[in-house]
Amino acid sequence: MHDLRRQALESGKTVSRKARSKQPSPASSRPNSAPPSRAASRSRAVSRAGSDEDEAGNLSDETSFSTNSIDELLNGDASDPITDAWRADLADRIQELLDRKRSSVQGREKCLATYVRILTAQYAEEDIRGKEAELVVSFLKSIKAGSSERETILAMKALAMTVVTSPSDRIYEAVCGPLKRIISDSTSVPSKAAAVHCLGTCTFFGGASDDEILDNMAYLLEIVASDGSFIDAQDEAHPVVAALEEWGSLSTLIDDLANESEEAAEYFVEQLSSSDPGVQIAAGENIALLYEKSYRALTEDDGATEFGEGDIISDPDDIPGVPKLVKNYDVYRRTDVLKDTLSDLASLNTRRLSKKEQKAIRTNFADILDSVEFPTHGPRYQNAISQETGKRYGSRMTVRIHKEGVMKIDKWWKLHRLQALRRVLQSGFVKHYEANPIVFESLPYVSTSGPGDIVANGSAES
Nearest-CA neighbor of 398 among 385, 380, 419? Predict the structure, then answer.
């Protein structure tokens, strides 16, 4: 096992297994790609640019792996001041979780909900230290028993919060099998989606090896490629969105996806024609990430004659010390067709979707199209020149961390990391960002905001 902290925090984790072997991508286990999703039940599609105020009342930190209404959640009860009484309450809940004798389903649900709420609102690493293994065993019992959908999802949320609060190299090996069985065998679609998210979190922070990370990315891609039928959830949007999001998060740990990109891009492009906005946006964000990762810094050892016209990109403002970038590989063979599709989505106008959904699609796909055309452009990139600095505004997505500064989300890999952390931490994101080293070091880029930056309190939006 690799050192967990290094594994979880380095933006370029490893070279992919396929890139190391230089072997062609193996064919998918499904000989023919599945048709694009026509999801019968729409996911809660949300723009990464804003919140869904009308749905805020339906969310809870305890069971949600969604980033919907993150602003509402960040300003909710869980971020209010709490006295040290929470420590005694947490100790009691831990004892209750470990001693399951004579417990009822309703009692376990209440206990798990309180445990999750406390770990969300507080950084409690000292309080659960040394108890992680026993807690994981208790969570797995609830997950495997399937006594109720709520208990199962609460147990998975508790597991995810535990591994983010106190990472362990041994957690992934213990939970991978049970989580995949829930994904494959559960009759509950919400449980499947929650298990996909929990698997992604435990893979990221729980001590998975390089090959296990790549195996799970292939597993998630299988879910996407089959529109959910691979896990007996045909045309169900929620598990497909979850698989897309966790694939994107895990791919930020991989340095070189040269031999994986084409196959992944094919499936992501297919999902752009989904009837579900959440599927479309998640697929689009992965496409933008793939194009971003296809470039690397130009080194002195690179000869300019080795590369074709347009393969080398220079900083538009000629900032000293900023290296030129060179295209390492082609992501998708029909980029021209892809650009047309993205352009159509960026100007979408249909009665099929609400105004909010249309705005989410247009805003996100304008960014995604820009990044496909100019892979050095991150989310919310603006070419306008600042009168104060004389330079382009560039990516204007930032996250304010109270009054101490802002984190600039100027790369797609940063946005994927931010989204993954928000899915787990919900309203506790700011608290954990300040107190939890594993969270802070995942996105350790804090600075003061520049002129014209778009700043949100604890979330990224425009």
Answer: 380
Whether residue 404 has pLDDT greater than 50:
yes
Q: Kindly give the pairing relationship between strand 312-313 and strand 397-400.
A: unpaired
Over the stretch 415-438, which tens digit does the pLDDT of each residue have?
999 999 999 999 999 899 989 999
Two structure tokens written together for 95: 């004892």
Q: Which amino acid, 263?
A: E
Could you give the residue ranges of the DSSP H alpha helices within 166-276?
A: 171-185, 189-205, 210-225, 237-251, 261-271
Contacts with 267 (C-beta within 8 Å, 6 or more apart), sequence order: 33, 221, 224, 225
The helix, strand and coil proportions of the chain, stated in percent and rounded to the nearest 5, come to: 55, 10, 40
Tokens 């971003």 correspond to what residue? 292
Give the HSE-up count for residue 126: Cα atoms under 13 Å, Cβ half-sphere. Answer: 4
Distance CA(137)–CA(59), nearest Å, equals: 27
Give the pTM.
Answer: 0.81
Give dist(CA 415, CA 397) in Å, integer. Answer: 9
CA dihedral of 258, 262, 267, 273, whole degrees rounded to 10: 120
* Residue 7 Cα to chain centre, angstroms: 16
**CB neighbours of 376 closer than 8 A, spacing ≥ 6?**
292, 295, 313, 325
Return the structure tokens found at 301: 């050892």
Contact 266, 283 (CB under 8 A): no
Question: Sheet harboring 446-447: ordered strands across?
Answer: 446-447, 406-408, 397-400, 454-457
**How buried is residue 112: exposed, middle or buried, by Cβ count under 10 Å (0-12/13-18/19+)?**
buried
| Distance separating alpha carbons of residues 458 and 434, to the nearest angstrom | 11
What letter represents residue 222's amino acid? Answer: E
Report the C-alpha gap between 299 and 146 in whole angstroms: 54
Check if the beta carbon of residue 386 is closer than 8 Å to that of residue 392.
Answer: yes
Question: Are β-strands 254-256 and 14-15 bridged in parallel, bridged antiparallel, or unpaired?
Answer: parallel
* DSSP 8-class letter at 22: T
Residues 23/336/395/353 CA torsion (nearest 10 deg): -110
Amino acid at 196: V
pLDDT digits (tens, 9 = 90+) for 88-106: 999 999 999 999 888 899 9
Query: CA 357, CA 215: separation in Å to the nearest integer?
Result: 33
| 423 CB-near residues (< 8 Å, 6+ apart) | 65, 66, 67, 197, 245
Tokens of 274: 């989904």
- Rounded distance between C-alpha atoms, residue 219 and residue 201, angstroms: 15
